[in-house]
Write a structure and sequence with these properties.
The chain is built from nine helices and 18 strands. The protein is an alpha+beta fold and 359 residues long.
Length: 359
């Protein structure tokens, strides 16, 4: 195995050899309860070797608990956790050959950046020469060499997050777990760190499981997305497939920004007694366009300027509808305008079960 961070005298161990030929993580029938709260309900999930898998869902859906069962920080009440073909339910966290990055950074405030990076290697009795080599290589990789002598309190949020990443990477793990690592950063830094984490994944070819409640992070970072709700997995697929073919109205509403329109009653000459329809805002228009069908008129209630696009908030027959398109000259609040839809992009759901209906 070759990483971009060069490792002298490196020999792949049994864990790393096995990860090349099988699903790296398998979770079989995992359940977990805290008091009377069933947090995980019979979860089955496979993670492929070198995959970037994102667990996403609202707060309290069980995604962090699921991650912690892989890390060994939580023991499932039932089911098996298998890493590289080995059942690890009784294996201690430090022996699972993985690293974890937390939301809180979890840095030692009394230690310098250098010593924070070196800490886990010292516990493993690695020689001082090798520790220095690996710390400097990791610091160079993350571009944090200039503040190795600083304490965490002297760093910005973005710099602390890089150090937290470095502390995980310095061990050269084949598996890295991220538990909402960017929640404490502002929007600009979150975007930068998303790119940084993806760069690390691509260059190190490690397996990554990443927890977030932010669907933008999920769709921009994940090879596959696991959408969770109330302790259950609702859908697992590639971001584009989940966006275009959500399994139910929950997934349709949770994934995508601006949020999908879920409509009932009557729309586009469809009387929807037993169905609801979903239509993404970008597949609606307030001016005529080839490939779009007229669906009556609507009234503009509000216009959000998003830069290159506007989000038009409309009302049609007392139903609220969002339209995302380039700005329309002359469009104003209170104006009655025609509404057009790209009919083939309409998604149909059963009104009772909320499940998607096959086209």
């Amino acid at each position: 195995i070759f990483y971009v961070i060069k490792i002298s005298n490196f020999r792949p161990n049994r864990w790393q050899c096995e990860r090349l030929i099988m699903n790296y993580i398998e979770q079989k029938y995992i359940s977990k309860k805290f008091s009377n709260n069933q947090v995980l309900k019979n979860i089955n999930l496979n993670v492929k070797s070198s995959e970037f898998l994102v667990l996403v869902g609202p707060s309290g859906c069980g995604k962090s608990t699921l991650l912690r069962t892989i890390a060994g920080l939580e023991t499932p009440d039932s089911g098996d956790v298998i890493i590289a073909g080995v059942r690890v339910n009784s294996v201690q966290p430090q022996d699972r050959n993985l690293a974890m990055v937390f939301q809180s950074y979890a840095l030692y405030p009394h230690l310098s950046v250098y010593d924070n990076l070196a800490f886990s290697l010292k516990l493993k009795k690695v020689s001082d020469t090798e520790i220095k080599k690996q710390v400097l290589e990791t610091a160079h990789f993350l571009q944090i060499e200039s503040f190795l002598d600083r304490k965490p309190k002297a760093l910005s949020g973005g710099q602390r997050q890089r150090v937290a990443l470095g502390r995980a990477l310095v061990k050269r793990p084949p598996l890295i777990l991220f538990d909402e690592p960017l929640s404490n950063l502002d929007a600009h830094l979150r975007q930068q760190m998303r790119l940084e984490i993806k760069r690390i994944h691509q260059q190190m070819n490690c397996t990554v499981i990443y927890v977030t409640h932010d669907q933008v992070e999920a769709t921009t970072m994940g090879d596959r997305i696991v959408v969770m709700k109330q302790g259950e997995i609702i859908q697992v697929d590639q971001p584009t497939k989940i966006y275009e073919s959500p399994q139910n109205t929950f997934v349709a509403g949770f994934i995508g920004s601006p949020e999908i329109n879920i409509l009932s009653g009557e729309f586009n000459n469809l009387k929807m007694n037993n169905i609801e329809i979903g239509i993404r805002p970008e597949y609606l228009r307030i001016q005529e366009k080839a490939g779009y069908q007229n669906t009556g008129t609507a009234v503009i209630n509000y216009i959000e300027n998003l830069g290159s696009h506007n989000l038009y908030h409309l009302t049609q027959n007392d139903v609220k509808i969002r339209v995302l398109q380039s700005p329309v000259e002359g469009a104003s609040v209170g104006q009655k305008i025609p509404l057009y839809v790209k009919a083939e992009k309409i998604i149909r759901f059963d009104a009772q079960t909320k499940m998607r209906l096959q086209d």
